[in-house]
Design brief:
The chain is of the alpha+beta class. 43% of the residues lie in helices and 22% in strands. It contains 5 helices and 4 strands. The strands form 2 sheets. The protein has a two-stranded antiparallel sheet. A two-stranded antiparallel sheet has the order 3-4. The longest helix is centred in the C-terminal third of the chain and has 13 residues. It is globular. The protein starts with a strand and ends with a helix.
C-alpha cells in the first residue's frame, strides 16, 4: 500500500489519508477560527491545489487575520500545541502550499 507523508513526522496509507479529505474536514470550525481550507482546483501539472487562506466574510465583520501568512502562523502554532483541527488542516494542504508554510514558519 502506498504511503503518504502528511507532516514532518507522520505517514499514512492512502485510505487513511482519504478519510481526512477536504470534504470530511470541519470547515465551520475553521471559519469560526478565521481561516479556511480552499480547494483551488489544479496546478498546470494536474496536481491538486489545496490552500490554507484567511477567511473573509463581510457579513461577519472584519477578518481575524490581515493576510494568509498570518493565518498560516496561527494554524501552525495551534498545530504545534496539539490541536487536531489545525493538524488536519495542515495535512490537507497541497505539497507546494506545505513547502511555503514550512519555509515561513518551520515544520509542525
Amino acid at each position: 500500500m502506498r504511503q503518504i507523508r502528511t507532516t514532518g513526522s507522520e505517514t499514512r496509507d492512502e485510505a487513511t489519508a482519504a478519510a481526512f479529505g477536504v470534504d470530511a474536514f470541519d470547515h465551520d470550525a475553521a471559519r469560526r477560527d478565521g481561516w479556511i481550507i480552499s480547494d483551488c482546483g489544479k496546478y498546470r501539472d494536474d496536481a491538486p491545489r489545496i490552500e490554507l487562506q484567511k477567511f473573509d466574510d463581510p457579513e461577519q465583520g472584519p477578518p481575524k487575520f490581515r493576510d494568509d501568512r498570518e493565518a498560516w502562523s496561527h494554524v501552525v502554532a495551534r498545530a504545534r500545541a496539539g490541536s487536531v483541527l489545525h493538524m488536519r488542516a495542515l495535512d490537507l494542504v497541497d505539497r507546494r502550499e506545505r513547502f511555503a508554510i514550512e519555509a515561513a514558519f518551520g515544520p509542525w
